[in-house]
Specification:
This protein is α/β, with parallel strands linked by helices and about 400 residues long. The chain has a domain of about 180 residues: Trna Endonuclease, Chain: A, domain 1 (3-Layer(aba) Sandwich), CATH 3.40.1350. It is built from nine helices and seven strands. Strands 3-4-5-6-7 form a five-stranded mixed beta sheet, sandwiched between helices. Strands 1-2 form a two-stranded antiparallel sheet. The chain is elongated, with a radius of gyration of 73 Å. The termini are far apart.
Length: about 400
């Protein structure tokens, strides 16, 4: 059996295989297989080693990356924390700024609303005041309307119209003349009683004033619609006014007692203007009858003229007294001139005495100055004599 064991390698080594036209023994083939297996094992070992090294490197890289990730996460966390802090700070600052802006806006809005409320209140106050003024004006207009209605009623009635004209005329006369210069409803020598008599100064004659006016035809003319009615009303107005003018001239113009001209007072400026504008013939006929038609304004002018006449008359009445007072005044002025002359002579003597006193005081002043200069010169000489001569110092002493 031992021989068989030793023989087997030999046999095995002697076995020859032909591969691709080349003779390869079984031993070589086995050695090649073993080398291949060894190579494969070495390759596997290297691969495993490399795989282990790679895994270790990967683990190290993973750990490094994890560390870097942790560092980056820490940095990112810090950045996020800083960003959060910054965001919180900015949010706080923004909230503070927003609160301040809201406070400012609220303050301005409050001031604006307050000022607007004040302006609105002032406007409402002004509006209330204007409304009050408007109410007062409306009340005045209402009162004036009622007065106009009452005036219309007054002018519609002949007696009340005469009383109205008499009242206006009396008011003008009372306001402008002294009570001794006029009289109302006085009786003339013929028994007629004019509405007013004005006494002229330095004369026995009186000016007659009549305050009545025929208004019916004038109202009819104003209310007429067609030309025929207007012409008829104008004709009636001319007739009534001429009748009234003739009555004034016949009743009140008395030679030696009344002035040669009488006054017919019209209590309305509009009626007076219409008469002068459309009825100039009536004005001329009244002048020929020595009757002057006047309105309230013309009556005031006549009263002012009478005031000047009365003033001149009073001045002439007091002329002698004024002349006497002027003579006495001249005597007083003469005595005053004489006394002024005496006083002037006294002033001249006083001035002469003062001049002489001034000369004496100037002489005394000059002598005093000379004496003062003499004393100063003597003092200087005494000082020069009293001062001894100083010895000269020798060197070394």
């Amino acid at each position: 059996m031992a021989n068989h064991a030793y023989d087997l390698p030999m046999q095995f080594s002697d076995t020859i295989l032909v591969v691709s036209g080349r003779a390869i023994s079984l031993l070589e083939l086995t050695l090649a297989g073993a080398g291949l297996a060894l190579f494969m094992l070495l390759v596997i070992v290297i691969f495993v080693w490399r795989l282990g090294s790679r895994r270790h490197s990967e683990v190290i890289e993973t750990q490094r990356r994890a560390a870097e990730m942790e560092v980056r996460l820490a940095e990112l966390s810090g950045q996020l924390r800083n960003f959060a802090d910054t965001a919180a700070t900015r949010e706080t600052q923004m909230s503070r700024n927003l609160d301040e802006r809201l406070d400012m806006v609220s303050h301005r809005l409050g001031q604006g609303l307050s000022q607007s409320a004040e302006r609105t209140s002032q406007s409402l106050q002004n509006l209330y005041e204007r409304l009050a003024v408007i109410d007062v004006a409306q009340q005045k207009i209402t009162d004036l309307s009622s007065e106009m209605l009452s005036l219309k009623d007054i002018l519609a009635n002949k007696q009340t119209r005469g009383a109205y004209g008499q009242a206006r005329m009396e008011a003008i006369i009372r306001d402008g003349l002294h009570s001794s210069a006029y009289s109302f409803q006085a009786t003339l020598s013929n028994g007629k009683r004019p509405d007013c008599l004005v006494k002229l100064p330095e004369s026995d004659t009186k000016i007659v004033i009549d305050a009545k006016f025929p208004l019916e035809a004038f109202n009819a003319m104003k209310s007429a619609d067609d030309p025929a009615a207007i012409a008829l009303a104008e004709k009636q107005l001319r007739r009534d006014v001429m009748v009234h003018i003739k009555d004034i001239a016949d009743k009140y113009l008395i030679s030696g007692e009344t002035h040669e001209t009488a006054i017919m007072f019209v209590p309305s400026e509009s009626i007076y203007a219409d008469l002068h504008e459309h009825f100039d013939d009536l004005i001329q006929k009244a002048h020929r009858q020595r009757v002057i038609i006047t309105s309230p304004n013309i009556m005031m002018l006549l009263v002012q003229t009478m005031q000047a006449i009365f003033k001149d008359a009073r001045m002439r009445e007091q002329a002698s007294l004024i002349q006497k007072e002027v003579v006495l005044l001249l005597d007083d002025v003469g005595r005053l001139n004489e006394r002024i002359g005496k006083l002037q002579s006294h002033f001249q003597m006083t001035a002469k005495d003062l001049d002489q006193m001034a000369i004496s005081t100037s002489k005394i002043t000059r002598r005093g100055e000379k004496i003062e200069q003499m004393e100063l010169q003597e003092d200087v000489k005494l000082d020069e004599v009293a001062e001894p001569a100083r010895p000269k110092l020798v060197a070394g002493e």
